[in-house]
Amino acid sequence: MSTQVTNEGSFLRRVATVLSAFRADDGDLGASELARRTGLPKSTVHRITFDLAEAGLLERHGGQVRLGLRLFEIGQRVPRQRVLRDAALPYMTDLREATRQTVHLAVLEGHEVVYVEILPTPGGPALPSRVGGRLPAPVTGVGKAILAFSPAETVRAVLQQGLPRISERSVIAPGVLTRQLDRVRAEGVAFDREESGAGIVCAASPVLAPDGTAMGALSVSGWSSTMQMARVAPAVRTAALALSRALGAQGETPQT
Prior knowledge:
Elements: H1 2-20, H2 31-38, H3 42-54, E1 58-61, E2 64-67, H4 69-75, H5 79-99, E3 102-109, E4 112-119, E5 134-136, H6 141-148, H7 152-161, H8 174-187, E6 190-193, E7 200-208, E8 214-223, H9 229-250
Antiparallel strand pairs: 1-2, 3-4, 3-8, 4-5, 6-7, 7-8
Helix pairs in contact: 2-3, 5-9, 6-8
């Protein structure tokens, strides 16, 4: 029995590895590319993708596969995403109207932020963020906003992982990031000044649970040449505080 359980667990880990190999901007992928990304044998990838396609989690297009609609349907049922997104949408809409910039809602998972919702604006920059996509937390405004109000062990784990350089202005010194997080705690607003991409800036504020820990974060992003951070930051802070109060009043605090 223990051998069977171990084998099943190993198979499930391989399935998760294959699904995780798909990136936000991927279309169709072949078994050779998936094998390269996952490090799994091509024969194993063939077998796993066949089973996933039969279950509707992948879609076949010739000899290639892409993520299936059923995965999206399942993802919409995740409580943390559903509760937080549904509550945040009115505030995000108002924030976009007030700032005329792209608005994000994100949560922290491990060392990365996952984007739950994005409301784009015409004429905005091409951003590296995608709904369901991930970015390293330390290079994003939402990531810093969440980390500043996360348990100390969460911040330590991110620092120990190492700080990635995504752009020329990414902060890679732990001491500098620590000082930035201290300032975010004091002011309630975090900034990305071209750290996630050239020409892109962002102001973000945490969505807080009643105990003061971050459930997620809202942000506004735009061109560094046109977005006025001093005007946008108070608007983001106000929206995040209002959303935090609304979630607390409803008694609906998404678990992190």
